[in-house]
Write a structure and sequence with these properties.
The complex is a heterodimer of chains A (270) and B (107). Chain A has 9 helices and 8 strands. With 270 residues, chain A is an alpha+beta fold. Chain A has an 8-stranded antiparallel β-sheet, sandwiched between helices. In chain B, α1 packs across α4 and α2 crosses α4. Classes of the chains: A alpha+beta (270), B mainly alpha (107). Chains A and B meet through α3, α5 and β1 of A and α1, α2, α3 and α4 of B.
Chain lengths: 270, 107
Amino acid sequence: MDEHVRHHIPLYLDDELQEDERQAFEAHIRCCVSCRAALDRERWLVEQLRQARPCYRAPQELRDQVTSLLRRERRASRRLPQIAVLLAAMVVMGGGALWLALRARPAAPTHPSAFALAAVEAHQRYTRGQLPLDIVSDSPAEISAWFAGRLPFNLKLPNYPEAPGQSKPYEVVGGRLLGFQQNYAAYVVYRLRNRPISLLITAATVAQPSGGEVIPWQGLEFHFAAIHGWKVLTWMDNGLTYVLVSDFEERGQASCIVCHASTYDQRVFK
Amino acid sequence: MAEGADGALPDRWLVDDRLCPEQLLEQARLHRHLQGAIECLPEAFREVIVLRYFEGLSYAEIAQVLGCPAGTVMSRLSRAKAALRRQLRHLTEQEEAPVRRPEQHEG
């Protein structure tokens, strides 16, 4: 196995490679069985680590307080690294909620929306088997029919046409209702390459996309962000707000191509 | 919540068919062990694991928070994951041979 490529495996999974390195890595992985096996082993550990993350977080108010305290502290002295280390230690040793204080980081991007965070929590619970589905079906029409009348908005899951000679790269698994800000949101799970993708949908009056890298496409704005290591894409269309959560390594627009790789979808997405 | 139009509960609703209960239990146990293993890591390793995989910070952000070069973050992450992998392997081995353990004590 090429040492250089092996060194890139964790960087690839952590989204730390430059675009040209990423392309070279993916090209190598496609044709090298042993590197692919090493990538799968590393990915397994990373998935377990993400899933082992405790499912609780400090209330926003406390986070904000600690954040502003840290910022003030940073301006006032150069002892921030020690403070951060102390906090990290406190947090890991049992103060669970407090480690979130560490989000007070320099050049912090804008906060992800509460709706995006709710989708990430739901995705994590689902991958741990802690979020049973209310309807299990591989038919988008059947799932849409189940949601009809249960949501304060109309939801029709699209049935992407299969390109001739190509099987659909992903399939719908099922769905359920999830409470979000005194409303029901629709939670839908897809599966691609045997890995789950979560889609959380609510009315645009309840939640709006914010933060992350904005990718404009055909009049829509897709917000791409990494939250707790998951890839999160948020957008608004036709009065609804969508959040898509996955653990795929692709980023930005490439993450759209993951699912929409058929010739039909490629036409739409390029 | 999941009632059909006629009020009956079709069997296939309320079913999560991905993992069976034994697998779920196994997974929950693995995550508990992993959390325990993370707590037992030396502080410098624990920090990078928590900041990267629980908080989702990039290497550059971790480097800024900890006040060390990004290369150090990378090498600590790599060594931390190697240690966690060893712990998990150790756990599996222990489970495969649980009964003989006491005989190995030496006076």
